[in-house]
Structure formats: structure tokens, C-alpha cells
Amino acid sequence: MPRKGMRSIFFSSSKPSSPPRSHASSSTPGSTPPLTPRHTFSVTMMEANIEYAESLITMWDVDGPTYNKLLPLFTSDRKEAKEFLKSVKDLQAAMNFFVSQNSSAEKMVRAQKLMQTAMKRLEREFYQILTANRNFQLDAESVLSRSSRASTRSSASDDDASDDEIQIAGNSVSELVMADLRSIAECMISAGYGKECVKIYKIIRKSIVDESLYHLGVEKLSSSQVQKMDWDLVEAKIRSWLKATTFAVKTLFYGERILCDDVFSVSEKIAESSFTEISKDAALMLFDFPDLVAKGKKTPEKMFKVLDLYDTVSELWPEIESIFSFESTSAVRSAAANSLVKLGDAIRLLLSDFETAIQKDTSKTPVPGGGVHPLTRYVMNYIVFLSDYTGVLSDIVADWPLSVHSPLPESYFSSPIADESSAAAISERFAWIVLVLLCKLDSKVDLYKDVSLSYLFLANNLNYVVSKVRNSKLKLLLGDDWLAKHEMKVSQYAANYERMGWSKAMASLPTDPTISISIDTVEEHFKSFNSAFEEAYRRQVSWIITDPKLRDEVKVSLAKKLVPAYRAFYEKYQGMFRRKVGVDSAVRFAPDDLDNYLSDLFYGAGVAGSSTSFSSAASARDRAVVGDSNLGLKLMKLLPRNSFSENIRELVLGIDMMNTESAVGDTFPDEVIIQSDMLHA
User: Fold this and answer.
1) How would you class 201 by CB atoms within 10 Å of its CB: exposed for 0-12, middle for 13-18, buried for 19 or more?
2) For the region Disordered, what residue ranges are annotated (predicted)?
């Protein structure tokens, strides 16, 4: 009790107290009961409370003559603000006392006018604090900090807690604001002025929420508006919505819920109604947008943004449930849950349409050189991106069993995950999409007239698929067994290509190249090999193997099958044949030439069917003689130094340099070969 109030008790009173009446005295019904000494003391105390409240409230009267009417009470003098609130509570207690004692109307009118003056001041303070802190928002960290400090103060007495609150609030603007708003709200509600307090709070905080969403790029859209937008614009709005929603749920709505619960902690009903009116419309507008996107036209490129929407709402769902837990905000929970359902349906439909699009691909143009088909690149890149959403997709396809009618055994697309979990479901779904792609690629081999090229096409495309799986999250979903099985199929396709593409050249050599045969037979073997090798090379020079590792493996494999057998045959019989001017030699390739030509393959740089010159390797004998730099130097020493011999000397040096510096596939002019024959002769 303030000292001024205590002095009033002993030195003054508003009315002289009536003498006590005897209990035996007669009284009429309805008359004021006799006052005992105790009652007299209580009356005196209540009157003193009113007097003290009057002195303080009048000083801060917003319509009064003093300068204080222009000053904010709670930011000017916090101790005075504390006394002001206490005087209002004491005034309320005095009013309740006089009502119970059937006191004179004069006292009640006086007290009521003072209460109205006090409420007008508190109403202004409440408004000023709210408007001065429009940017005030709470996040999880500040709320946790506030809660921990509040629990520390909860065991203290009321006066100590108030002092501690002011001290702590000095270090935290958010706590200071919340403490002031809470104190004013409690005072006004207890005095019967809660309606005025709540009205101000709702108007200001609702405008803040609506303005925040507007600045975040959230706007009210209709279904027809979204349908008419270009996808680029919709995509931009989705990106904006994703950022806005995370902030809105974790900071904006979360902070408003905490603020309402704290400011109106005296009444849970008022806190609920305030939060509902402030946040409900904004939240419904926010969660309406995913539904509008889900209703739009379904095309494969929209999949990932739809997944982003689903992922964001799904991740925020626990917070949404907690923040909008009131019955009056159940519509917000329903809207968020409904958006998840609609987005999930849209994603399932997009997946089905994606599979159907693969199956219905009608491209009839064969990929040049048997390279990787655009469909393969598109599908594999698409599902690699999809694999980044495994967690989301697992939830979506968990209750969407894979029902397919395929002649292939289930092991071709079954999940490596043995249990019945959602992870197994999405794993099976990915395996099935890959299988659909591979089946479509199998149907495209008919576009190639060359069987060996069709096998190269299959090897290239399956190897691309395997590489994408191995280097992405798909490896975890499809498993090591799937990888091993399909790597083996790549090797089989490559082996079939080698067999079909080079069988004629391999068959042109004798089974045992070291056995003795007639010179006519040897010549026939050489000519058959020359023809078969040149035909295979010219046909395949434009073919391609896109993967460097597979390319090298195929080259090495071809060289191992072709070169050793030819080398053995060549070394045994090449000496029987010498090139003559104007006559084709039976021996056109040295073993090293084969390696050089094979190294040219699978880059896709040549032109199929071109008349590529084989003169650089046409004479194994010439390469053996002229290509030997040591032999060239010996020949120069033997030549006489005259004009003709100088020309020959330069020629030999040129041949040596060409032999030393030439890249794979370089050719010698025909005149060089002819002159080297003359030199040899």
C-alpha cells in the first residue's frame, strides 16, 4: 500500500463515519447494516485507495491540462507505470467493495469516472505500444529464451517478479513489449474493458500479418488466374511462395500465436479468438495456392516444383498443427492437409503420365553412330532429379501399389529393399520406370539396318543408364545387384557388336596362322582380310561410343581379338609379297596399322560410307622399309652427292619426319610410296 494511502487512513476521510449501532437496535428491511469498527476501517481504506488512484490517474489523464497527457506512460517512467496499474487494481477493488456495501451513488460515480479515465489512458498506451512495434516478431529462439527466464521468475513473489521482469526486460525489447502489453490487457480485461483492448489488438496485429504476407509476395489468386499464367510465371510464384511459407509458419504465425497466448494469458478464450481473427484469413490464402497449382495442367516439367510444394507443406505440418490447434482454426489445418492430398494426387498423375510418355515415344530417327538416344538422356536425368525427393515420394507412393502387366519376371523391377516399407515402394517404382525406358530402347533397334550398330546402340544407352544410376542416389534405391546385372548386359551388348561387326575380318584369317599353306591361299587370305577390314572400318568410322571407359574397353577387346592373329599371319607370310609400281600389294596393313585404325574408331567424327584412303598403311612392307628412320639414314650415306641424290635425301628425311610426327590415321601420298619402291629397287 502506498504511503499516501496509509496517511489518509489516519488523518482524513471523505465522510465522518456513522456511530456504531447496537445489534439490539431496530432496523427497517433493506436499510444499510450497522457498521462495526472493522467495517469502518475497511471503508476508510477503500476511500484512501480511491483518493490515491485519483491523484495518479488525473495526472496522466489524456484529456487533462498537464503535459503528461502527451507523454507515453510506459516508456517515460516505468515505475510510475507500475504504480498506475496498481492504483487501477486498487480502484477496482474499492468499487467492488462499495457495491457489496450498498454505498452511496456519489462514491460509485466518482470511482467510475476515474476508471473510465484510467481505461482511456491504458487504451492509448496499448495502441501506442502496438503501433510502435509493428515490426515486432517472435522466433523460436527468442520464445525459448523468454520461456526459460519466465520459469525462473515463476517461484518469486508478485512484487519481486515485477521488479525482475523490468530488469530483464531492459535487456530484451521483445520481453519488454510483451510484458507491457500483457499487463495492460490484464488490467483492462479485469476492469471490464476487454472488448476495447481486444479490438485495438486485432486491428493492428491483423494489418501487420496481412502486410507481411503482401511483402513476401503472397497474394489472393483464383483458379482461372493460375490456369492462364505462363508456367515461367507460375514457377516464379512457387519459388516466392516456398520462401514466404517457411517464414510465415516458423516466424509470423508462430510469433502471433505466442504473442496472443502471452498478452491474453488471463483469458484463453480471448487469446483464441484474437489469434483466429488475426491469422485465419491470411493462412487460408497461403495454403490455397498449392491447391491451385495442383489443379493446373499436368506436364512432366512441373513435377519438381510440385514436389517442392509438397515437401514444404509436409515438413511444416507439425508446426501447422501446433500453431493452429484451436477448434476455431481447424479450417487452416484442413486447408494444409487438403493441399498435401491434392499435391500427392498431382504427383502420382505426373508419374503415370511420365511412364506413359516413355512408352508412347514415337521418334523414328535413328541416333547417328548408335549414340545415346535423347530419350535416354531425358528420362535418366529426370529420374536422377526425382531421386533427390526420395523421402517425399516414399510418402506419396506408399499407398499406391505398382500394378503392371509385364511378360518380364518381377525380378527385373523388384525392389532390393526386402520389407514392405515406403522406401521399398519407391525403389520398385524407380526400377519400373528404368525398365520401361529399356524396353522402349529395345524397340528402337529396328531403326538400324546394321545389326552390329544396333548392338552398339544398346551398349551405349544401357551404359549411360548404368552410369547415371551408379553416380546418383538411384544406386541406393536400385541396389548393387541391379547394377551388376545391367553392367553384365552392357558387356554382352558390346561383345555382340564385336562379333557382328568384325566377324568377316576375323574369319578371313586362317584358324591357325602359323601353319604352312600355299602362296595363293595366303594371298587370298590377305586380300580377304584387306577387303573385310576396310569395309568394317569405313562403315564404322562414324560410329560412336560416348563413354570414354567403355570406348577404351571395346577398342582393347577388338585389338586383342584381331591384331595378334593378324600379326602371326603377317610375320610368317608378308615377305612373300612386294609392291610393284602400278600394282596393288596383297599385304596392305602392318599389325601396328590395325591398332592405329582401331584407335580412330568410336569418336563419331568420320562420315559413314566415305572413301577413306588406306594408302598410309597400304603397304606393310613399305612402312617396314621406309618407316625405319635408322634405315633411312643408312640409305642417305650410300647415295652419291648429286642433284638427284639430294632430292632423294630430302625425300627420305621427309618420310622419316612424317613417320616420327604423324598422328593416327595420317596418310602418305601415292607418289611417295612409288618413289620409295624405286629407291628400294
Assistant:
1) buried
2) 1-37
Residue 662: other Cβ atoms inside 10 A: 14
Neighbours of 216 (CB within 10 A): 17
Angle, nearest 10°, between helix axes 548-573 and 591-600? 160
What residue has cell string 500465436? 257
Task: Enumerate long-range contacts of 69-73, CB under 8 Å, 24 or more apart.
Answer: 72/125, 72/128, 73/121, 73/125
Nearest to 372 by CA among 501, 550, 498: 550
What b-and-e string marks burial along 235-254, b requiring 16 or more CB atoms within 10 Å of the CB? Answer: bebbeebbebbebbbeebbb
- Secondary structure E strands in 248-406: none
Distances (CA, A) of 379 to 305, 359, 382: 17, 11, 5
Q: What are phi and psi of 267, to 5 degrees?
A: -145, 110
What does the alpha-carbon distance between residue 361 and residue 299 come to, in Å, rounded to a whole number? 15
Tell me the CB-side half-sphere exposure of residue 206, using CA atoms within 13 A.
16
User: Average pLDDT per run of 10 along the chain, which is 681 residues long?
Assistant: 35 37 39 51 68 76 67 76 84 74 69 84 90 70 50 46 41 74 92 92 94 92 92 94 95 93 93 96 96 90 94 96 96 96 94 92 91 95 94 87 55 49 81 94 92 95 96 93 95 94 88 79 87 91 94 93 88 68 66 89 64 42 36 37 38 36 33 30 31
Contacts for 580 with CB less than 8 Å, ≥ 6 apart: 677
Between CA 330 and CA 75 the distance in angstroms is 39
Query: How is 93-109 classified by DSSP, letter by letter?
Result: HHHHHHHHTT--HHHHH
> How many other C-beta atoms lie within 10 A of the C-beta of residue 535?
12
C-alpha cell at 48: 484512501
